[in-house]
Each structure stands twice: as C-alpha cells, then as structure tokens.
Amino acid sequence: MERKNNKGGHKGGAGKSSKVMKYLIKADLKVNGNVQRKDIIGAIMGQTEGLLGDDLELRKLQRTARIGHVDVEVKSSGGKVSGEILIPSSMDNVETAIIASSLETIDRIGPCAAKITVTEIQDVRSTKVNTVIDRAKDLLLVMVNSGDAATRTVIEEVRSVLTVGTAKNYHGLTCGPNVESSDSLIIVEGRNDVRNLLNFGVKNAISCDGAGTIKQELIDLAATKENVILAIDGDRGGEMLFRQLNETIKIDFVAQAPVGQEWELLPQKTATKCLSQKVETSKFAAKLPADAPTEDADAWLAEAEEGEGEEAEAEAEEAPAEVHEYFDHIADLKANNAVFVKVDGTISDAVGPSKLAAAAEEAEDAVAIVFNGAVSDRILDIASEASIDTVIGTKEGKGFATRDDVKAWLTEKHA
Predict the structure, then answer these.
(1) CATH of the domain spanning 18-124
(2) Which residues make beta-bridge pairs with 121?
(3) Within 13 Å, how many C-alpha atoms sit on residue 91's CB side?
(4) Among 206, 209, 249, 283, which residue is least crowded by beta carbons within 10 Å?
(5) Which residues lie closer than 8 Å to 157 by C-beta, 6 or more apart?
(6) Average pLDDT of the residues in 277-304
C-alpha cells in the first residue's frame, strides 16, 4: 500500500511540474480576531466548495495543478490578523478572474469576521517577458563592449536603434550623454562626429564646433577629466585644429583618422582602431611638420578659413537657377524675417524669427527657407528637423557649418 501511495504522490508531483503558471492572484486579508494560517486556508477551501460548480472546485483544481499551492502570509497585532493571500493559476484569464472573485465571498474565518479583497491578478508571463527584455539589454551591452567581430554587423544595426536621439547639448555644444559623468572626454570637431561615435556606443564625445573661439565651458570641462582625447580628421585641417586646441585645452592624447578621412564618416572598426592607437600629445606634436610651428596656428587657421571661403564662392558660381530666384525674395523681407518656398513655387506669409520653428513644422510642402539675415546653426537645425533641404540667407551666422542634409546659399557669396 505504501508503494502505491508513493507512486501516486510522485505522479501527482510530475503533473504539477508540467503546468506553467500564467497568473498570480493577490488578495488582502483582514480578520477581526486571532486565527492561524491553517484556519485561513481551510476557510478558503471550505467556503468556496460547491460555490462555482465541480469544474471550478479548488481542491480538484489543485489536484490537476490548474491551481497552485495557496500561500498565506499573516501577521498578528492587537488581537487582529492581517496579511496577503497568494494563489498561482495556470487557467485562462476568465477562469482565474472567477476564482479570484470567489475569495471575496468569504466573510468569516472560524468564529471571527473576515474580509478578503483581491488587489491584483498578476500576469506572470508578462513579468517574465519584461525580465527577458531587461536581461537582453544587459547582454546586448556586453556584446557591444566585447568587440566580437563575428557579431559586429548585427550589433551595429541594433545599436543604431538604441543610440538614436541620445545626443545632448552642453552649453551649445553637441555631445554624448556621458560627457559630464565619465572620467574621460573625447573632443571632436563637429556635431556629426559626435553622432557617428554615438552609433558605436561611444557616449563621452563632445564637439568643439571647429576652428574659432573655444568656449570656456569646454576648457573647464576638460580640466576636470582624468583623460582627454582629441579626435581629429586625417587632413591638414585636423592638424590645425590640434595646434589651436593644444594651446587652450588640457589634451592628454590625440587620435587621428586615416589620411584623407573624417571622423563623421569612419566605420566602427576604423574609429575603434584610431582610438586604441591614440598617442600622447607631446609625441603627436613632435611629428608635425616643422614648417608649421605651433605659434603660427592662428595664421594657418586664417588660411584655412580663407580657402574654405574660396571653395564656397566657387561652389556658388554653380548655384542652380532656382536658387537665384529665391534670392529675389530677400529684398521683400524685413530684417530677420523669413518665408517658405513651396513645391509649386509659391511663397508663404513672412514670419519673424521667434515663430520660424513652429512655422517650419507646419510647412509640410516647403522646399526652401528664405531668410533675410545671417544663417545660424539654429536655423539650419530648424530646416533639418522640418526636412527642408535648402536655406537661403545673407551670410554665415553663429555656429554656421556645412551639412549633408541641408544646403545653405548665401547672397554675400553669390552677389
């Protein structure tokens, strides 16, 4: 007889383990008197017996493992008992809800008045899915940082989703989200360099906005870091930028892109290699051409800016005919006012600078912004966000820089 009972018990245990619990019923318990845990479980089983019919009998449901072990957590205080009832269920949501509601019909436990209130029916599977998602994120970050070449292509695709929109602004400079919290800092030339590095998971880069006046906030930020890396393009302009920054900012290492290449276009493998092969500032300075000493950096920068101006003028000579037509609209505008040129060639009403961003969002059929004033970085941002790829203005404004997504044409270079 004992062997038979043991066999039956083993079979019952196997049956229970084969059921996957889907829901967890949670109920609040209050009893006006002192009762024990066994009294509470007895009341649950006894007072729901026959209430819902044979198919939803709790004892039977437990034998078939459709309802799990009833767990009661109680505490006694001042002659009263309170606690929580937990009942796992592998049934569907409708049947589980019926079982849960039946608990609230229990109004006495032994001789004491009682009240049971269902507080939650937790979807165990949903909780598991959230756990899987959180763990997958952790594993993905481990893969990203491991540098495993076999999975690199897939990681790059997934990472591009994770890093979209993480670019921040530090006193007007585009940067990654960790520039203040990280012990190290990577200084790059422009905003697109920062965004390219973000795609690779590098979140401690900040732009210096190219040659020109270096913001004091950037100088102060660099001074607080253990390591500062200057990442420059593999051209003469990159070396000139180094000469300028090396005089004003704490720089520990220099990472230069391959000859003729720019950081904003580097693939991840090349960018990672360049960063890993960074050299000390003193060693990098020592290998620069002797005919361009550090004290002549300002002259080099002026020459570069002049060269860029000549290139812009050469480019202006090839401006399409419609651009010259857009120039005509500037004469009709007040200073710092703008109009939008639509697909059909018509123009919108003029708007002031304070309303330009809002108007751009609503100008769905606009192909160009004509602005009677200096084209600043902010105006280019407005055009980019509104998917307007052409901006007409009078001259370069604050933070102006050429872009891939927005083309700016200036009257002072096309007179």
Answers:
(1) 3.30.70.60
(2) 25
(3) 24
(4) 283
(5) none
(6) 64
